[in-house]
Amino acid sequence: MFNNFDFDVIARSLPYLFLEGMRFTLLLTALATIGGIALGTLLAMMRLSSIKLLSTVAGGYVNLMRSLPLILVIFWFYFLVPYIGAWVVGSDQPIAVGAFASALITFTIFEAAYFSEIMRAGIQSIPRGQAAAGYAIGLSYPQVMANVILPQAFRNMLPVMLTQTIILFQDTSLVYVISLTDFLGAASKVAQRDGRLVEMYIFAALVYFAVSFVASRLVKRLEARTAIIR
Amino acid sequence: MNYTWNWNIFFEQALDGSGTYIHLLWLGLQVTITTAFSAWILALILGLIIGVMRTLPSKPAQKLAAGYVELFRNIPFLVQIFLWYFVLPEVLPESWGMWLKSLPNAAFWTTILALGFYMSARVAEQLRAGLASIPRGQKLAGSAIGLTTAQTYRYVLLPIATRIILPPLTSEFLNTVKNTSVALTIGLLELTARTRAMQEYTFQVFEAFTMATILYLLVNLLVTFGMRTLERKVAIPGYSAGR
Asked: Which residues form the ABC transmembrane type-1 domain (chain B) (predicted)?
């Protein structure tokens, strides 16, 4: 079974796999997480707003994104972003948007829906009395949110958000469908060039497993530590 | 914006001769539903076994089940599907590999296997949480009246735990449906793949994707509605599960 397993093809392509592929994957994961949390927090605040229109719009958006397959959303934005870009800059032809930018926009917008559900739970986990106390001492809504509610909500939800980031890390492999060179894309390109599918896919699986496994263990430890404080 | 909309495109004949474009998407939807449903049944069976194993008194059973869950949860589904499709036939004994590769509909069966195993780890985690949420006294009461471990699970714990986890299982079922789209990478002609085909034949990108979006939303509504009905049907009167 493994007697013609070619370790050399992995060794040969390590710089390409990690410096190009993994760099793309990690950068996309990190930026999409930051963007997703920012947009998601905004959506969660909209969803909990007493203004009916805002909560309906945010709720509809979150439910729509959560009922579509990520691959379909990737394709949507792959074709839509050039048109949106054209609309933004006022050009009448669709403009070329870089592959990375397109992927980043897609993942930010898609993951924001999931982060918003986490943040909503986080905001709702803070006793109402805290917001009421904030208003009572004369704070405005932005002040209450920024100084009282959100810092605690973030802290309570940190483990869940990090778990979502691990899911996002695994999800980024789907940029394969628009031929981008993330870690899996790089492995797959080497695999097809050298006819070494077995070696490259097993290696890719091992790397994804190692990263996700270690990361989820760390999150568990963090969770245990923060749980005591509350 | 410079895009020519043409909603009548759905009633034109598809280039591959399979009928109109709306029919093309309908074929894809059928594959999506069949695949998702078969994979879901596999996921439920495997998830039930692994989820129970995680709560058994036996340490080796717990370890084995925990390893299973970690294995299937920490590798992206796309990589898993590649392992099943490209790698498995190569690492099996040669005659088995040849047999696997010559199967008709290989992409279909591979997707069911890959998705079934992938989702089973999630089902197992839900079941474990469900079993853990049952007060310890119930298990002890089971042993006290002389039930074996198997009987305690069959007659006391599982009937309650499965009811408790129905709502999270609904979203896992929806995830199963959504994840079938990943199978387009190994050539399964499900809804997203058919949509892509339509987009390549006609260049009417947004009509095709809009229709796919609507179809996925409809499937979601259908599944949610079906599961809600099931929840009400199996609810124990006077016992609101999980609360």
From this structure: 29-227
Structure tokens at B46: 């495997």
Distances (CA, A) of A90 to A100, B5, B173: 22, 20, 43
Residue-level length of chain B = 243
CB distance from B192 to chain A under 8 Å? yes
φ, ψ for residue B13, nearest 5 deg: -75, 135
CB pair distance less than 8 Å for A170 and B77? yes
* Residue reference for tokens 């894809």: B28
Question: What is the number of other CB atoms lying within 10 angstroms of the CB of residue B41?
Answer: 12
Asked if the Cβ–Cβ distance from B174 to A204 is below 8 Å, we say: no
Can you list the domains of chain B with their CATH numbers? 15-234 (1.10.3720.10)
CB atoms within 10 A of CB A143: 13
**What are the tens digits of pLDDT across the range B6-63?**
898 888 888 777 789 999 999 999 999 999 999 999 999 999 999 999 999 999 999 9
Asked if B95 reaches chain A (Cβ–Cβ under 8 Å), the answer is no
Placement of tokens 């299982």 in the chain: B169
Q: Which CATH number does the domain A7-229 belong to among 1.10.3720.10, 1.20.1260.10, 3.40.1170.60, 3.40.50.880?
A: 1.10.3720.10
Q: Which two tokens stand for residue B23?
A: 């029919």
State whether B74 and A75 contact (CB < 8 Å).
Answer: no
Q: Which residues have C-beta within 8 Å of that of residue B135, sequence separation ≥ 6?
A: none
d(CA B163, CA B179): 25
